Amino acid sequence: MTRIESAADGGDEGLMPEQELPFFVYGTLRPGERNHDLFLRGRTASEEPASLPGLVLYQGPGYPYAIEAPGTSVGELVTAGPGAYPRLLDELDRLEDEYDRVARDVLRADGTPVRAWVYVITGAEARRLRSGGHPIPGGDWRD
Question: Domain 21-135 class?
């Protein structure tokens, strides 16, 4: 089940899980990928290139795993369209049920930081990846 990071876990004081933040997507939710078509197509106000320092992508079974570690990942910053956010958040939390949803500063292509939700692997799975996983060179799953 998706765990939402609280302030005690290193999140922001005052940041509510329901706050309508954009999403940083780095795998199958990126434009042109299978889950983008299923979950995001026609439900976004904007999609723009972005990167996330402090996030490393690892090869997974048809999708990447993301863990917080020194490095940078490439993806898109996706903002939900008007009225789409509550249902979209619920659907993405269910899709990403093995991940934790955390708020992090994502960088737009021009370097401007934007607070966004990102789904990351933590705990034993993150330790397993750090010790024996295969990082994706350059941080871009598409490459």
Answer: alpha beta
